[in-house]
Design goal:
single chain; mainly alpha; Growth Hormone, Chain: A; about 0% strand
Length: about 270
């Protein structure tokens, strides 16, 4: 039979063990939180590296396969010797090697900034219960598709102004980044258990489109050098709007039945 002091000691041990367990849980939570943030930082750096490599390849591949030498002109005027002409083109290429890298990266830089701002805005609207989740997803997708489509269609009519063309391209990339808070993250809402599979499937379709679109663009440009890009932009806008209409009709933001975990009850 235990005595009074023994009971008090036992109770004290239990309480101290409970406090110790709570302290260990808090420490583990803090440690998990730090690990989570560390992993998030590493993933962001990985994404930055991957997109940087893609950007470099998108510039390097056309530079390797295109002929950048000036076309031969046998009937050209003899006022400028051939050596001067070659030197002129070399100087021009040197000047444009740097306004091309910077200008090619500018839409992506602005787009990355707008992705963060769009995510913060979507979280604000959802946390304050201003809009429903499905409304936010469809609204951001509509903004990220309609406005860039209008901008792309307008590009052939501003080709005489280099600065206006670049402004339109930057705006198109910036506004299209709102889709990252819309349809491009919607698979997390409808099937969180299959996020990895759906994300991989999304990347597969994106790379297939990336393989088809240069061929289609080259076909239009080879048919008509003047209006080829206009047809490319019109086709791009038509594809974007068709996908938007489909998403606005069938898009959902709640977990689907096929993505829910099945539970079995024993009789």
């Amino acid at each position: 039979m235990s005595t009074g002091p023994d009971v008090k000691a036992t109770v004290g041990d239990i309480s101290s063990d409970g406090n110790l367990n709570v302290a260990q849980e808090e420490c583990s939570r803090k440690g998990f939180c730090s690990v989570r943030h560390g992993l998030a930082l590493i993933l962001q750096l990985c994404n930055f590296s991957i997109y940087t490599q893609q950007m470099n390849l998108s510039i390097a591949i056309p530079a390797m396969v295109n002929n950048t030498a000036p076309p031969s002109q046998p009937n050209a005027s003899t006022e400028r010797p051939s050596t001067d002409s070659q030197g002129y083109w070399n100087e021009t290429l040197k000047e444009f090697k740097a306004m091309s890298g910077i200008l090619s990266a500018l839409p992506f830089v602005v787009g990355c900034i707008c992705i963060i701002l769009g995510g913060l805005l979507a979280d604000f609207l959802l946390s304050r219960k201003i809009l429903r989740l499905i409304t936010i997803r469809k609204l951001f997708t509509a903004i990220g598709v309609l406005f860039p489509s209008v901008i792309l269609v307008s590009l052939p009519w501003v080709r005489s102004s280099h600065s206006m063309t670049m402004t339109f391209l930057v705006l198109s990339s910036a506004i299209s980044s709102f889709c990252e808070s819309g349809a491009l993250v919607n698979f997390l809402d409808i099937a969180p258990r299959y996020t990895g599979f759906l994300k991989g499937l999304l990347q597969v379709f994106a790379h297939i489109a990336g393989a088809i679109s240069p061929t289609a663009a080259g076909f239009f440009i080879s048919q008509d050098s003047e209006f080829g890009w206009r047809n490319v932009f019109l086709l791009s806008a038509a594809v974007n709007i068709s996908g938007l209409v489909f998403y606005l009709i069938f898009g959902r933001a709640d977990v689907q039945d096929w993505a829910k975990e099945q539970t079995f009850t024993h009789l």
